[in-house]
């Protein structure tokens, strides 16, 4: 399987904006101003479970998840960072890295399915992507 056969699930593409690529994963920003939220998607075709990755790729995914967690901490200074790979709605393997605040509207519950997504204003989204990109480059 090659990276060239990788295609982002249309549901992920519809709700996110690309930040950039790490060695294994495409980094996306969930376009929801209520929660700072990154998504890592391994650029491998037909992968729905972590066990579908090679051992080396699974180790890379964990390293990149740690990097994304550090970026989230620097980017938003959250009270907590939640990391999860559920895949109940979108089967394509992807890892959520979500900054959570005690003051956020879903706290302490999950963000999934909580009310309606509120897209970022264009300028705020562009600034956030630029900042996130710089933090990933420096990591």
Shape: globular
Strand order of the largest sheet: 1-2-3-5-4
Gap between N and C termini, in Å? Answer: 28 Å
Give the number of DSSP strands.
Answer: 5
Percent strand equals 15-25%
The count of helical stretches stands at 3
Low-pLDDT segments? none
- The SS-based structural class is alpha+beta
Order of H and E elements: HEEEHEEH
- Average pLDDT for all residues: 95
Helix content: 25-40%
Largest sheet properties:
5 strands, antiparallel
Rg over CA atoms, rounded to whole Å, is: 14 Å
Secondary structure blueprint with pairings:
Layout: H1 10-15, E1 16-21, E2 25-30, E3 37-42, H2 55-76, E4 80-84, E5 95-100, H3 122-138
Antiparallel strand pairs: 1-2, 2-3, 3-5, 4-5
Protein name: HIT domain-containing protein
Pfam families: HIT
Domain HIT: 38-107
Q: TL;DR of this structure?
A:
This is HIT domain-containing protein. The protein is α+β, with helices and mostly antiparallel strands and 139 residues long. It contains three helices and five strands; from the N terminus they run αβββαββα.
Model description:
It is a single chain. It contains three helices and five strands. It is of the alpha+beta class and 139 residues long. It has a five-stranded antiparallel β-sheet. Helix 2 crosses helix 3 (122-138). The protein starts with 9 loop residues before the first helix and ends with a helix. The mean pLDDT is 95. It holds the Pfam family HIT. InterPro entries: HIT-like, HIT-like_sf, HIT_Hint. Residues 38-107 form the HIT domain. This is HIT domain-containing protein.
């Amino acid at each position: 399987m090659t990276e060239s056969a990788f295609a982002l699930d249309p549901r992920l593409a519809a709700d996110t904006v690309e930040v950039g690529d790490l060695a294994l994963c495409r980094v996306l920003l969930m376009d929801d101003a209520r929660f700072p939220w990154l998504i890592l998607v391994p650029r491998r075709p037909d992968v729905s479970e972590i066990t579908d990755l090679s051992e080396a790729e699974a180790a890379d995914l964990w390293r990149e998840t740690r990097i994304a967690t550090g970026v989230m901490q620097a980017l938003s200074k959250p009270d907590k960072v939640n990391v999860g790979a559920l895949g109940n709605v979108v089967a394509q393997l992807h890892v959520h890295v979500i900054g959570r605040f005690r003051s956020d509207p879903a706290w302490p519950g999950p963000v999934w399915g909580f009310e309606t997504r509120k897209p970022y204003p264009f300028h705020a989204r562009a600034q956030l992507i630029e900042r996130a990109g710089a933090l990933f480059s420096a990591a």
